[in-house]
Amino acid sequence: xxxxxxxxxxxxxxxxxxxxxxxxxxxxxxxxxxxxxxxxxxxxxxxxxxxxxxxxxxxxxxxxxxxxxxxxxxxxxxxxxxxxxxxxxxxxxxxxxxxxxxxxxxxxxxxxxxxxxxxxxxxxxxxxxxxxxxxxxxxxxxxxxxxxxxxxxxxxxxxxxxxxxxxxxxxxxxxxxxxxxxxxxxxxxxxxxxxxxxxxxxxxxxxxxxxxxxxxxxxxxxxxxxxxxxxxxxxxxxxxxxxxxxxxxxxxxxxxxxxxxxxxxxxxxxxxxxxxxxxxxxxxxxxxxxxxxxxxxxxxxxxxxxxxxxxxxxxxxxxxxxxxxxxxxxxxxxxxxxxxxxxxxxxxxxxxxxxxxxxxxxxxxxxxxxxxxxxxxxxxxxxxxxxxxxxxxxxxxxxxxxxxxxxxxxxxxxxxxxxxxxxxxxxxxxxxxxxxxxxxxxxxxxxxxxxxxxxxxxxxxxxxxxxxxxxxxxxxxxxxxxxxxxxxxxxxxxxxxxxxxxxxxxx
Length: 507
Ligand SMILES: Nc1ncnc2c1ncn2[C@@H]1O[C@H](COP(=O)(O)OP(=O)(O)O)[C@@H](O)[C@H]1O
Ligand SMILES: [Mg+2]
Prior knowledge:
Helices cover 50% and strands 13% of the residues.
């Protein structure tokens, strides 16, 4: 029974089309390179439009006019005959005209005929759907026509697609797990891709693993990473980072734990309570990026990173356009965590055209209006470069300041990195190391552990506490050489941000 119910779930795209049909507009133009997908969506909309599904007839220059069962309608070859056929058709139906932009461009007679058809199809439940990879809408029919660009497929559409895909794989004798749980898991992984890209990803995964099931996830994720990253500005970040891998930063961690609950309830909460996002600023190497990766995993959502350096590089067109487009693309990928990494990176003093200002203004409006399912995590080293509106209450749910780790936090960070590398922290006098590591960043603590491990490995023995101490005495922490900058950041943040650690540092 599950199967039947699922089959009737309506995708976002099918719903859009059904609503257009119901509004009675007979002429629709869909720009999409995904003809197969459009055909599926059309059929779904045709089914849900009325109790009795509308038949879908398809015309193309090479295939002529075909009925839904594939049967050819004799004698209908050129575009003119196709339109005449529609004019003479007496009962409700949907006519899918593939690549009809060419005849529209070439022939005034065709354009005229289409306008006549508008009149004769109106209120007759006969719908003409033109599809084309390009937008070509002649002026004289512009007002009679609904123009549509399909958004990325949603979970319903991806599940339909996967069900069909598993059916085809099984028919070819390839093992494919079609349980609802697995399909839902796979669909979530494919979210953010077009249907063609999804098909490509699935086939690649099948060719690597020999079958399709929940253990195909890593291969699918990797394909998705490659496909998403082709866009250049948005990067799909894979990998699991547990909250337990963060040493210290207890206030921030506790906040995230609470936010996760609220975020999961987002559809039933008023807009002002739904978590929008967090800005994490502070000293380089103290775990800002680490925290954002942990948010993705902890919220159990895909994580997309926007590279501000790429945005401003000009490699993807004018920065403003590239940025706006990236944000739009992310809207379609909800639910997700969106990471604006080192968001101040784009800011330079040489902004003569006001482009940076416009980008940040757009960003702030977008933050207010974006889809509920997007949680924004922005990180910044030099928050003092950011426009003041960005930090003002209400933009982000919270602004956190990540300082150099406190004694206890450094102990925590040592433990995290030792255990991650298979060393039992109980074997090491952590207190001694913590004293050595006064003023170190988390990254420096990690570097100390890695160097000591490397040294021991090279000498073909286990690492000892003395290895750690030896390395530690050689490390010159950033905070010593950058004392002034750090004090500047601290002074700036103390009034504007919440400390991510539990108690204030005593200086
Ligand atoms: N609080 C921390 N707990 C555990 N590891 C840390 C912490 N801070 C930094 N690190 C280590 O240092 C690396 C670099 O930190 P990162 O999060 O990239 O710093 P930031 O983004 O603040 O510059 C991390 O990947 C992690 O291995
Ligand atoms: Mg970082």
